[in-house]
Amino acid sequence: MTRETWATRTGFILAAAGSAVGLGNIWRFPWMTAQNGGSAFLAVYLLVVFGVGVPGLLGEFVIGRRARRNPMGALRDLSGSRRWAAVGAVSAVTGVALLSFYSVVGGWILRYLLVSMTGPLTGGAAYLSTPGAYFETISFGFEAAAFHLLFLAITGGIVLGGVRRGIELGTKVMVPAVLVLLVGMAAWVVTQPGAGAGYQFFLGFDLTTLRENFFSILGPAAGQALFTLSVGAGTMVTYASYLGEDRSLPFDGSVIALLNTGVGVLAGLVVFPLLFSQGVDPGTGGPGALFVGIAGAFAALPGGGLLAIVFFGVVTLAALSSSISMLEIPVAVLVDEGGWSRRAAVGVLLALVAVTGTVTALRPALFDFVAGTLVDLLLTGGLLAFLLFAGWVLGRDAVAEYVSGAGPVARQLATPWLFAVGIVIPVFLVFTLLTTAGIDARVGFWPTVGVAVAAVAVVLVGLRRQATV
């Protein structure tokens, strides 16, 4: 079976950026920013994106392009070990877990888009007049499950089209559309009275807040960075495996990170000024904050119904650009490793996620666990495994893949990059997990750093011993 490849470099960049440019930026980013200090969170988030996320992204690219396989096949073929194959297989589980909650949120967005367009005809006028009560009614239950299935069906239809005719074609339309519409909305929001308070909250750098709350912000910022860049799930390993020629991975990774970060910042420049202009507290509402706050703001604005259609249309496109990447991970595993046809793989996985997502839509406590704790653990653990593999199993081969097709500046950064992905970033990831669990509050900062260093050292010793067997 001939393996598919991207038709163009632009298609690859937009597909990878589309995986990152999703609900993480438009739904989760403003919510997390509001709950973690506004501009202080933004500062830490940007540090993590470019200090951890971009090197991690390149680590996954290196593995995928060198093996030209899905995460499971890539780790097995490059290491010759079934143990590493099992580690790679976890990526398929992660993709299913992500889609099991993500499609529920995607269903919420489709519901809001529908009622924005039809209004009273579907009984949806309440989403503007009483947004909090409306979201409470539709967020979980059988109607939420039905819209989850609709969103999942659209996602499956795109992935069924394959790499070129489905994913690449879809993201070539969706990603530019998201950027154009967000820029337009950001320009319009500037004209709203009271918007300045939103800009101050989002962009007004507060050194005191940053210094006093840095470590409490670090965990959420790291989780947000991994989620929005789609690292740790094997998405970027899978997408890089479809590269048909040598390209500059550092350049492509930087462009993808800039596009992703740009959309997140644009979303903040739309959401926060709009909420502050209407006197809405952005820190309230939890996962429904975007829907409740934005719908309430649209209700108070002339032409709010039309603006709602545009806004939720943007969010729908962004959601789909990410959900197709989540489904593609397990699809690639079944196609590459099991010899399945793409049609059969998509069909079976849609049936599986239809069940898991429906259960999630019916149980709010399960949704919170999957969308929070489970996903954070899977993404952090997955990225940790990929980086240790790139740094210590591939080693100099990883550097050779990194510099292939790269320019002179990127070549000079290859060895520092290998050191970062092999030692520095793994220690950071373990430290972040420990601080998220509150270990630093109980034992202190430096003992927590020591535990993180020791844990990574033990793993590295094990990897060296395995390499000599």
Automatic annotation (TrEMBL):
UniProt GO cellular component terms: membrane
Pfam families named among the record's database cross-references: SNF
Keyword Ion transport (UniProt): no
Localisation: Membrane
Coiled coil regions, renumbered to chain: none
Alphabetically ordered keywords of this record: Membrane, Transmembrane, Transmembrane helix, Transport
Transmembrane segments: 12-30, 42-63, 84-110, 145-163, 175-202, 222-243, 255-276, 288-320, 344-362, 374-395, 416-439, 445-463
Topology relative to the membrane: Multi-pass membrane protein
Protein name: NSS family neurotransmitter:Na+ symporter
Organism: Haloplanus aerogenes
